Amino acid sequence: MTLQLNWSRAATLLQRLGSVIGLVLLFIVLSIMSPDFLTTGNLLTVLRQVSINALIAFGMTFVILSGGIDLSVGAILALTGAVTAGLMAAGHGIVLAAGAGLALGLLLGVINGALVSWGRVAPFIATLGTLTLLRGVTLSYTQGSPIPVTNQSFALLGGGYVANLVPLPVIWMFIAFVACGFLLRGTVFGRHVVAIGGNEEAARLSGVRIAPMKLAIYGLSGLLSAFAGIVLTSRLYSAQATAGAGYELDAIAAVVLGGTSLAGGRGWLFGTLVGALLIGFLNNGLNLLGVSSFYQQIVKGIVILIAVLLDRRQ
Amino acid sequence: MSTPLVTMRDIHKAFGPVKVLEGVDFELLPGEVHALMGENGAGKSTLMKILTGIYAPDSGTVEVDGRPATIATPADAEKNGIAIIHQELNLIPALTIADNLFLGREIQRFGLLDHRAMTKRALEWLARVGMERLDPGTKIERLSVGQQQMVEIARALGQNARVLIMDEPTAALTEHETNVLFRLIRDLRDQGTGIVYVSHRMEEIFALCDRISILRDGKFVGTRPVPGLAFDEVVKMMVGRTLDARFPTRTPNIGAVRLKVEHVTGGIVQDVSFELHAGEVLGVAGLLGAGRTEMARLLFGLDKLQSGQVTLDGKAITPKSPNEAIHAGFGFVTEDRKAQGLVLDMSLRENVSLPRVPAHAGLVDRPAEKTQTRGLMDALKIRARDSEIDVRALSGGNQQKVVLAKWLALKPRVLILDEPTRGVDVGGKAEIYHIINQLAEQGVAILMISSELPEVLAMSDRILVMHEGRATGLLDAHGATQEAVMTAATGGK
Description:
The structure holds 2 protein chains of 2 kinds.
Chain A: H1 2-33, H2 40-65, H3 73-89, H4 94-117, H5 123-142, E1 147-148, H6 152-159, E2 161-162, E3 166-167, H7 168-186, H8 188-198, H9 200-205, H10 210-236, E4 238-239, H11 247-257, H12 269-288, H13 293-312
Antiparallel strand pairs in A: 1-4, 2-3
Helix pairs in contact in A: 1-12, 2-7, 2-8, 2-10, 2-11, 2-12, 3-4, 3-5, 3-10, 4-5, 4-10, 6-10, 7-8, 8-10, 11-12
Chain B: E1 6-15, E2 18-28, E3 33-37, H1 44-51, E4 59-64, E5 67-68, H2 74-79, E6 82-85, H3 97-101, E7 108-109, E8 112-113, H4 115-128, H5 145-158, E9 163-167, H6 175-190, E10 194-198, H7 202-208, E11 211-216, E12 219-225, H8 231-239, E13 257-266, E14 269-277, E15 281-286, H9 292-299, E16 307-312, E17 315-317, H10 322-328, E18 330-333, H11 337-341, H12 348-352, E19 359-360, E20 363-364, H13 366-379, H14 396-408, E21 414-418, H15 426-441, E22 445-449, H16 453-459, E23 462-467, E24 470-476, H17 482-489
Parallel strand pairs in B: 3-10, 3-11, 6-9, 9-10, 15-22, 15-23, 18-21, 21-22
Antiparallel strand pairs in B: 1-2, 1-4, 4-5, 7-8, 11-12, 13-14, 13-16, 16-17, 19-20, 23-24
């Protein structure tokens, strides 16, 4: 009995640490293979590239932990980025424009949550629907052409540096990580997210109000996607209708690589950060080694499959 | 006397340490309807699963037509002409009658489905169950439950079944459909088919069956011919045992009326009324499907109350969700702790505090949570290394205590227990009884649903008996007999 317990705990730990070990190994291998890898400049560049995906993936972690999925994150990112840029182009200030973008992201997420809870639509289908819908809305809104950003202070949000060294998006990523980590582990909300993913019926019978919880969970995912959209728009000096295409898959990959179960109820936020870094460093290393982007996709796919296969063993 | 279709001798079966069948004999003759009876958990369905190749017996022999037979898989059962009609029907709703009848054994012509041949054959098969008016091209989902059952029987007969096992076949049927089914069963019997009829419904069995075999606690009690058999004798054979000292005693401390339920109706529950006092244990007895759990779900806000009045401490309440019910003062220990009671991947501590996490302004107070969990672990004698262990790893008895602990943390005014000792070993049961007694002594009003008659009789102050959604008896537990409870539970007199 005790033997079985220790084994199951050890297996969980090993599985959780698997992504960390993978990241460390990748780090060592790349350091040896490429002289350009282990430089402050390169590492910070990777962190900056990872930050957008990580922001989205943090929200996705809550959704997946609760037993759901959110495919609309990339579309929310594009629309909120475009609305923010559009408002500034119309002469509004940063605070109003960015505030409107964030509020819109939150609202769109809450709509996803309403479809899933009150509408009883499967999360995959509901967010696939809003993904398609929002892409169309963004294309209509932008008429297909990029909306340029001219406000120099806004451009700092994604393009600025702290101490002339650390890119601001990296700072946002770590602030979001700490805040989300606390939300997940330190609050009743976080506890209920995991309980819903672990056993929704038991949670409901224990008095957890499922529908408001789902509105909040998907709302959080929408809010973080909008934040990522604003940072990305700022960094690129423009909002593109097609921005964030396929980002949902990178975010899901980061969550799953980090050891969070797609079935819900089991996982951790630190793993998601590691998963996002793993994907980022893998891309970076393959670039540095001169591997063609065709092969990069193959490698990424294999890594994700291996991670999911390891998850299946549980 | 003709050769039996099926003879099972000295069948033993255990799941781990739990002995489910201990030396059971069963014989089915051609042209008889043979009832198999026993309380829930007596071993009826295990015996039938052995006969249909789903489980292998640990020891014992099975003969078909007087010759030893090995039935290791459902396919073997089919080859031996044995078919089972399940309580939950095994048809595919989106396919047609003909598709379902020939599923897995489709008639083909040049590698293509031969629809014409299958339709023709389907009509012949339907005619054998008196359903020739049905179009074989009709989708299953458009049929009534009774018609679906007929299609299942037609499929079994089409596969040359000579032994038909029916598990509570009338549970979902209307009176008319039941009559149609009985006529068919009698016809099949007269043609030499052997029918095993598994049911709790005494009236049906006396009307339909030729012989009755009774199991109790996995043991074979006996087989009796129905003619000349008394209702009471069957009940006595089923419940048999006498009470022993497995149940701790309690000093009654019954107070004022706490919960008043008047004419509650919803789902299958029809017009149920009762009063529950502070410090009282009201047992709720009845057979599977009598509506006991459904009544509890209505009170707890899980299902919609269609009409009726619920009053808690003089205040009318209508909980619309578990959340509201909990705030009103209810706790509900569900019958299926794994599916409904616990989050298996969470720790013991997290499960205990799920209904109300100790927190300030939404921030979890971890030290308070640990103290609360430890207190409850001590009070309920939960045996676990520490409060951080996954509940998945605990034994059934300890898991059940965790579910109880969840609710005790809230100090409920009314605690509903649905099968509180199911799947718990004897020692664990005694401890849970002790906890129930303590709660009652502290003044908690307890509604205890249980299918174990000795438990209901020994633990309750009064017993509410339900049958087909209605309250059919309210007995004083002192002086009540198992026979009296069973009589009310089977709708007799």
